[in-house]
């Protein structure tokens, strides 16, 4: 096998940075060598410099895409880290719906969510399933989940929504699998009603965010760990600019925004941290709720983008639309409400459509957060209090909502 020289690594790592923002230092020399090996063979390259020259000269852009697909680490799993989905269901969503239900008077409540580096889609479908579990039927909501990634291979797979045994066994409780997936040949496919909640699109976080519209919640997890400190700051500040003032950002559980940008403040809920824009910190942050002016934008079709099937027709909603059902105890990890831990899945041992081998050691090492990450600016995590309010809104439960709103009002007056 042709080995990569230090000079070749220097040229290629600069090229890789220029096309996807992934910053590779010399400790990643072996990773670049192994991940580009098959391209070397495919394009008959005599050296890594030759590969670089051919990629730069390739006007179709295909070689560039292949390099991005090869270099990016698409490691992901369903309900990754569990607690972000708990804070999503039990804190961020109820607060948001509470605020939105006051502004939309009679219309469906819009919720725009962005998974900003969605890889092969597990994060997007975890969000969609968590929404279904938390909100019950979604008739009173206008939900839009955007999944984007720079890797078109990853986006295509995400859009198809079919997973093999290995992928299914990572993070999906059996009950959730049975409820939201159907066995199809050698894998499991996400059910149409969940698939219909999402749109996927190829998108490079290094590019301007113009045209994306506004979001209520952004998941940007385990991607900024590959960026330089300056790019990290730039990406999170662009996210601040597309987040509603009362929106929320969820980042990876090994990541922190301390020392990265002052545009977000950390909020704690039980075991989790999420971030909200510091009021007035972003010059582009609008002053108020913008849905009346900014409808969910139609996404421009690209080769890799897939337009979702239409959602059910909006239904008129009473003024005090959704209804919080207080829950004393958050649902167990995995959103199904009954399974505390991932369980083995009864998938017949069949050849996989797209076998995904466990990440090689080098790739796994790449997942580690940079050591310079500062600790989170919060007190030690309290043990979750079982009786803490963990409200989940269920459309249709009007009397309970009224009671809660009254309670809130009374609290506000006292
Ligand atoms: C480790 S995965 C994280 C997936 C998911 N967010 C999670 O936490 O499980 C990182 C993803 O970031 C994507 N990525 C890397 N650079 C990117 C960029 N500049 N713009 C958009 N996505 C990028 C990769 O293709 C990869 O799918």
UniProtKB/TrEMBL annotation:
Signal peptide: none annotated. Residues 307-399 are annotated as: Disordered. Residues 1-265 form the CheR-type methyltransferase domain. The keyword Transferase applies. The keyword Repeat does not apply. It holds the Pfam family CheR_N. Residues 309-329 have a biased composition (Pro residues). GO terms for molecular function: protein-glutamate O-methyltransferase activity. Residues 330-340, 350-371 have a biased composition (Low complexity). It catalyses: L-glutamyl-[protein] + S-adenosyl-L-methionine = [protein]-L-glutamate 5-O-methyl ester + S-adenosyl-L-homocysteine. It is an enzyme of class 2 (transferase). InterPro entries: Bact_Chemotaxis_MeTrfase, CheR_C, CheR_MeTrfase, CheR_N, CheR_N_sf, SAM-dependent_MTases_sf. Its EC number is 2.1.1.80. It comes from the Bacteria. GO terms for biological process: methylation. SUPFAM superfamilies: Chemotaxis receptor methyltransferase CheR, N-terminal domain (SSF47757), S-adenosyl-L-methionine-dependent methyltransferases (SSF53335). Keywords: Methyltransferase, S-adenosyl-L-methionine, Transferase. This is protein-glutamate O-methyltransferase.
């Amino acid at each position: 096998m042709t080995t990569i020289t230090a000079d070749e690594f220097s040229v290629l790592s600069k090229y890789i940075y220029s096309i996807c923002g992934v910053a590779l230092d010399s400790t990643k020399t072996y990773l670049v060598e192994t991940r580009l090996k098959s391209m070397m063979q495919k394009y008959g390259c005599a050296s890594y410099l030759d590969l670089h020259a051919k990629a730069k000269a390739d006007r179709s852009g295909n070689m560039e895409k292949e390099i991005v697909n090869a270099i990016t680490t698409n490691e992901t799993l369903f309900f990754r880290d569990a607690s972000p989905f708990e804070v999503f269901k039990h804190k961020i969503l109820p607060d948001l719906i509470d605020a939105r239900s006051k502004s939309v008077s009679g219309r469906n409540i819009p919720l725009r969510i962005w998974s900003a580096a969605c890889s092969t889609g597990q994060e997007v479908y975890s969000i969609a399933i968590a929404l279904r579990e938390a909100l019950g039927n979604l008739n009173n909501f206008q939900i839009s989940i955007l999944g984007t990634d720079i890797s078109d291979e990853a986006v295509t797979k995400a859009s198809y929504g079919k997973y093999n045994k290995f992928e299914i066994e990572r993070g999906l409780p059996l009950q959730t699998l049975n409820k939201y997936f159907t066995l199809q040949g050698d894998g499991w496919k996400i059910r149409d009603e969940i698939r219909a909640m999402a749109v996927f699109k190829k998108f490079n976080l290094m590019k301007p965010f113009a045209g994306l519209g506004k979001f209520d919640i952004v998941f940007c997890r385990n991607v900024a760990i590959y960026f330089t400190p300056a790019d990290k700051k730039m990406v999170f500040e662009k996210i601040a600019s597309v987040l509603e003032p009362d929106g929320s950002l969820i980042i990876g559980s090994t990541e922190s925004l301390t020392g990265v940008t002052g545009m977000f403040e950390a909020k704690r809920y039980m075991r989790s941290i999420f971030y909200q824009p510091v009021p007035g910190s972003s010059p582009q942050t609008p002053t108020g709720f913008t849905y009346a002016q900014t409808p969910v934008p139609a996404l421009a079709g690209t080769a890799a983008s897939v337009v979702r099937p239409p959602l059910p027709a909006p239904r008129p909603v009473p003024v005090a639309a959704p209804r919080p059902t207080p829950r004393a105890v958050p649902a167990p990890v995995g959103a199904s409400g009954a399974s505390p831990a991932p369980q083995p899945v009864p998938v017949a041992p069949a050849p996989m459509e797209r076998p995904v081998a466990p990440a090689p050691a080098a790739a796994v090492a790449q997942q580690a957060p940079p050591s310079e990450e500062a600790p989170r600016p919060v007190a030690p995590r309290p043990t979750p209090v079982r009786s803490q309010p963990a409200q989940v809104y269920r459309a249709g439960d009007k009397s309970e909502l009224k009671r809660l709103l009254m309670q809130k009002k009374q609290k506000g007056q006292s």
